């Protein structure tokens, strides 16, 4: 069972998200938070697998909350089409992915499942704006890039296209566990904290 904490300062939005998530047989909403500080405190106490985090909230914004939750839970950021610097900061803080608030129920559930598996995701429309904002992607040592093996570069390209571990495995003819190992090595070598960062970095090469 995937344990999820929903954090949004709008009660109606929270209720809608909870309703959708609890409709999935493999997802359990373990808590709801109306502000960033409560989200962090509840996550530390409840240890959810995924925190569905709004960007703009009182007491503590989504980026600060995401930074504090490093190592506690994977964070899936909720955002609108009008991205702001909070979202760019959340990427640097290690957010596992970004989900548009107008996404449909099926995509929301799929996104939570992906993040819970350690995959992460970025909506294509979000990716374009992130690339423009980063103007070349997160800073990575050129020597680190050169240290990637040809296979790791292929895996990085898969991350750049937003592929899951299973999709990378199929495209490269390897086992999913092997693909997962390669992904971990690529992130470690490049000093990146998430697949989301890897996707933006690859797009800027």
Written overview of the protein:
This protein has helices at residues 11-21, 36-46, 62-68, 85-92, 105-116, 124-134, 142-146, 150-160, 165-172, 176-190, 195-203, and strands at residues 2-7, 27-33, 50-54, 74-79, 97-100, 121-122. With 205 residues, it is of the alpha/beta class. It folds into two domains: 2-133, Response regulator (Rossmann fold, 3-Layer(aba) Sandwich), CATH 3.40.50; 136-203, Arc Repressor Mutant, subunit A (Orthogonal Bundle), CATH 1.10.10. Strands 2-1-3-4-5-6 form a six-stranded parallel β-sheet, with helices on both faces. The longest helix has 15 residues, at 176-190. The protein is globular. Residues 141-205 form the HTH luxR-type domain. It comes from Microtetraspora glauca.
């Amino acid at each position: 069972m995937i344990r999820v904490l929903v954090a949004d300062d709008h009660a109606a939005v929270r209720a809608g998200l909870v309703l959708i998530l609890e409709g999935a047989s493999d997802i359990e909403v373990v808590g709801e938070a109306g502000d960033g500080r409560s989200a962090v405190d509840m996550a530390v106490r409840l240890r959810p697998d995924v925190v569905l985090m709004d960007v703009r909230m009182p007491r503590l914004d989504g980026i600060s909350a995401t930074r504090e939750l490093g190592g506690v839970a994977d964070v899936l950021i909720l955002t609108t089409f009008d991205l702001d610097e909070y979202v760019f900061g959340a990427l640097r803080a290690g957010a596992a992915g970004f989900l548009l608030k107008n996404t449909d129920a099926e995509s929301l559930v799929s996104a939570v499942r992906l993040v819970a598996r350690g995959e992460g995701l970025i909506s294509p429309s979000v990716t374009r704006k992130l690339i423009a904002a980063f103007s070349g992607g997160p800073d990575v040592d050129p020597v680190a890039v050169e240290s990637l093996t040809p296979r790791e570069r292929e895996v990085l390209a898969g991350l750049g296209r937003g592929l899951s571990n299973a999709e990378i495995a199929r495209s490269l003819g390897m086992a999913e566990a092997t693909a997962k190992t390669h992904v971990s090595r690529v992130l470690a070598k490049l000093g990146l904290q998430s697949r989301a960062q890897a996707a933006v970095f690859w797009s800027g090469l």
